[in-house]
Fold this sequence. Notes:
The protein is of the alpha/beta class. About 40% of the residues lie in helices and about 20% in strands. The chain has 16 helices and 15 strands.
Amino acid sequence: MKVINVMMIILITFLSLLVGLVTMTEASSPATEKIKVGVAHALKNAEGKEFLQGVIMAAEQVNAAGGLTADGKTYEMEVVWADSNEFVSTADAASAITKLITVDKANFVLGGYRSEAVLAMEEVAADYKTIYISSGSAHPKQALKVSENYDRYKYFFRPWSMNSDYQRFLYLLAISPIIRAVQNEMGIKNPRVALLIDHAIWTGPIAALAKKVLPEMGCEVIGEWRVGFSATDLTPELTAIHGKGAHIIMYIQAGPAGAIGPKQWGELKIPAAMGGVSVQGATPGYWKASNGMCNYLASCFASCPELAITSKSVQFYKDYEKRWGYMQSPGIGHAACSWDALMILAEAIKRAKTLNTDALVESLEKTKFEGVAATYGLYGKGHKYPHDVIFAPGYATSFAAQWQDGKLIPYWPDGEEAHQAIINAGCPSGWKGLKYGGTGVYKLPPWVVEYWKDKK
């Protein structure tokens, strides 16, 4: 009995020492605190789902690397989210970011896609003096607010996408190879171009510049057709465009209608090459969903698995597929751009070594970061568009790709300098020689070539 009692005493003493050792270890280790990153996006849609997944991936990788140090403390990133429902309601978008800031106590907010919704969310972020990074919206007014009232709106940053004043150059650059193909391969000196454009505030500058510059590029603009953001049938517009004898359709559609136009274009075999941007036209499974009717559709995107825009581009998609079990929307790059956005924020925190908002605003203004979709820089205070992504060779350029028999084949930048008319309109120069690894060649739709061969 005495032996048992002695053993019990020894065991209790050992356990007490062990507990004390663990307690001392915990007390001597710095406590890991949380940086809450809120995501406000259209989470019922592929755009929002993949944006959120990109942010989560980035946060996981930051945490796995040891987190972030700021103000003498170690932090892990925690992601919280709210559905903005912005395709339906701007008020819902404002409510979503308000909830993230006031209820979920997010230190920073990322997200937003529709310009109308982002403008509302920008106001909320300004009210609460919270840094808000939007990757996806395009209206210039978001950055113009920063220029016009810096002290109120300095919390807004847009590392992607370039605003529509710059996108208007992008779409003209990306449609240039199509114009050249019609001129050189089909022998049509002055192609007729129809504008089939999203009825939204962000597309106004694009339409205005296209109508001015396309004639200087040797084209005739035969009309402008506006389609609703959520239109379900574009047959009337496509039929009218065919009746006008278009050789090229410049298609600018970011909303759900972007899945309808290319499919019906292919079904009807409209004899006009289609290029511009169709965001929905490159969502997961769109080739199958359209029964291959999107074949030869050309569009601008942010990033894709095969294109080596930076040294991180190809690996990101492998990591994404491993993490989520499927390949991100080929070409659109919602997850790539949201991963980039969070990493830009993390780098800014590392530079500033603090979570002080004003210090982080200054640090973000110094961004030069090689991401997945681009090497990022941001226009600074005093620029017309402060806190917007720099659009130029060597920085963010986007790219254009074409569906070719089930695969997206990048075809621009193709190493050619921009047409002088585009440069004269204010587009950055320096495109000569710029061509990313994995770039292929644009192909005219065979039915377009066949239709026009005897009708020049």
